[in-house]
Write a structure and sequence with these properties.
160 residues; four-stranded mixed sheet; 2 domains; 5 helices; alpha/beta; 14% strand
Length: 160
């Protein structure tokens, strides 16, 4: 089971938020009565991913850990998990143009989305306001086959 969140700003609380999300998912997919029986209930192994495309510099990949939010771990016994009684690891990937090219190649949609956002930023950086930058980026992307079908179906800015 993969939980993916998209962020345009880095939020250090993502591990905590994803812990809340996975708890809600498990509540929906697990028979509540089975958890009170003696037999172990097998659950899908979760993976947690954040796709970042904000403007602040960020590495291609970073891990965030729930344990970084624990107030005090000094009194926990040394255990298998570095003394932490609960851990959740989030893989954060920078999907801006120029970052993680192998990841963006594996998913055409994600790569095209990254290119689309890059075009908006390019046009905005050359003096256009956000509305004009988006219109110009939509036109460019449709003409160059970037998210073409999606933009044609969902944009009021399709070229004639």
């Amino acid at each position: 089971m993969v939980l993916i969140e998209h962020q345009s700003s880095i939020n250090e609380n993502m591990p905590l938020r994803l812990l809340e999300y996975i708890g809600r998912v498990y509540e929906k997919i697990i028979d509540r009565h089975k958890v009170y029986k003696t037999k172990l209930v097998k659950i899908p192994r979760p993976e947690f991913i954040v796709l970042y495309n904000g403007v602040e510099p960020y590495p291609d990949h970073k891990e965030m850990r729930l344990s970084e939010a624990f107030k005090d771990t000094s009194d926990l016994k040394a255990a298998v998990n570095d003394g932490k009684s609960l851990e959740l690891v989030v893989q954060v990937y920078n999907i801006n143009s120029g970052h993680n090219p192998e990841l963006l190649k594996r998913s055409e949609t994600l790569g095209n989305y990254s290119s689309f956002i890059g075009k908006i930023r390019e046009y905005k950086g050359s003096g256009s306001n956000l509305d004009e930058a988006m219109k110009t980026a939509i036109k460019y992307c449709i003409e160059h086959g970037i998210l073409k079908l999606f933009l044609e179906e969902n944009s009021s800015e399709t070229p004639n």
